[in-house]
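Forgive a beginner's question, but might I ask you for the amino acids of a protein and the tokens describing how it folds?
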Amino acid sequence: MTPQDLKNIANLWFKAFNDQNLDELLSLYDESAQHFSPKLKVREPETNGLIKGKDALRSWWKDCFERLPGLKYQVNKLTADSEQVFMEYTRIVEGEEDMEIGEVLEIKDGKIVFSRVYHS
């Protein structure tokens, strides 16, 4: 895949996330995809920040969308090569301070196989 293909997947990811369209978001992921996030470490310490598989992803984001119905991500920059895209974005939630986030999506055969979130 080209870097532009990966950026296109990232843009679909942002649209699905901002629309809180869980099915569309999950359609971008491989069945055995893994996701790492510091927020997972806090909310679900038993995971040590890592979840595996679409069922776990569905549960995590369903809870997120229910807790934070106004959550939006504003894209700042996308940088890609042929295997991954690095997304820089601002997390916006009413009543909370905006948070700058970096996230890497590793993509194989057109599907996200691993995502890692970084923030302060």
